[in-house]
Amino acid sequence: MVEKVNLSAAFETVPTPWTPLIVGALNGQHVKLARARGSFVWHHHERADELFLVVAGVLDMHLRDSDGAERVLTLEAGESPIAPRGVEHKPVARDGDVQLLLFEPEATRNTGNVDGVHTIEPEDLRRFGEDG
Amino acid sequence: MVEKVNLSAAFETVPTPWTPLIVGALNGQHVKLARARGSFVWHHHERADELFLVVAGVLDMHLRDSDGAERVLTLEAGESPIAPRGVEHKPVARDGDVQLLLFEPEATRNTGNVDGVHTIEPEDLRRFGEDG
């Protein structure tokens, strides 16, 4: 049975910053919603390109070029970058909470190559509509 | 170089209903924007699950269950269903133009298993930022 997800309603069930909620699965990929607050950690994904779409709020995406130079891409609602595999990135919420939609392969780990307080393994992520 | 796509600006460059514009490529998938107007055709995709996200407007997604029964899932802005591979579907715009974001494998053909006036081969789709 095909059902729809209402993004606003689903965001209401994402209480913890930086812990994504799976809202869709297709073609080996996941659609996730995440709440950003403050600064995340620098990381990259070895084998996953990662799409971000800002749904509400302002996000500063810090990026490190292959020569080590850093720059910041500021993202408002309706703006979407793709961080290709291997590219170091660090999302930082400008003010308060930022609502993000993510598209990425099922096996993608939120902190990629690093371990930290925000790390959650893909198999431990909650799916929308499940308890817990 | 990581760049961002502004969905509002990109939609301005999608003049033709039902002809998607590629705005992102990642992990063998495409992110596309499409403008819906009136009724599309019944079709399915053999090997692609297809995500729809309504960005503006109201879309009636007609669906045919495996027993042939038809039903309609009405989608407003911020609502998103996934049509799994093999499931017959027909999007219909309620009033005027509807703005849609699609996420699906690169090889996905807009009319799937059928040929018609709206058919455009995946390799003929325009990419955002390209001329033409």
Give an overview in words.
Two copies of one chain form a homodimer. Chain A is globular. In chain A, strand 2 and strand 3 form a beta hairpin. In chain A, strands 2, 3, 4, 5, 6, 7, 8 and 9 form an eight-stranded mixed beta sheet that branches. The first copy, chain A, is mainly beta and 132 residues long. The first copy, chain A, has one helix at 7-11; strands at 4-6, 21-26, 29-39, 50-56, 59-64, 70-75, 79-83, 88-105, 126-127. In chain A, 4% of the residues lie in helices and 48% in strands. The longest helix of chain A has 5 residues, at 7-11. Chain A binds chain B through residues 1-8, 23-29, 31, 48-51, 53, 61, 63, 65, 73, 75, 78-84, 87, 89, 103-105, and chain B through 1-8, 23-29, 31, 48-51, 53, 61, 63, 65, 73, 75, 78-84, 87, 89, 103-105.
Write the topology of this structure.
Two copies of one chain form a homodimer.
Chain A: E1 4-6, H1 7-11, E2 21-26, E3 29-39, E4 50-56, E5 59-64, E6 70-75, E7 79-83, E8 88-105, E9 126-127
Parallel strand pairs in A: 2-9
Antiparallel strand pairs in A: 2-3, 3-8, 4-7, 4-8, 5-6, 5-8
Short description:
Chain A has 132 residues and is mainly beta. Chain A is 4% helix and 48% strand.
Keyword list:
homodimer, 132 residues, mainly beta, eight-stranded mixed beta sheet, 1 helix, 48% strand
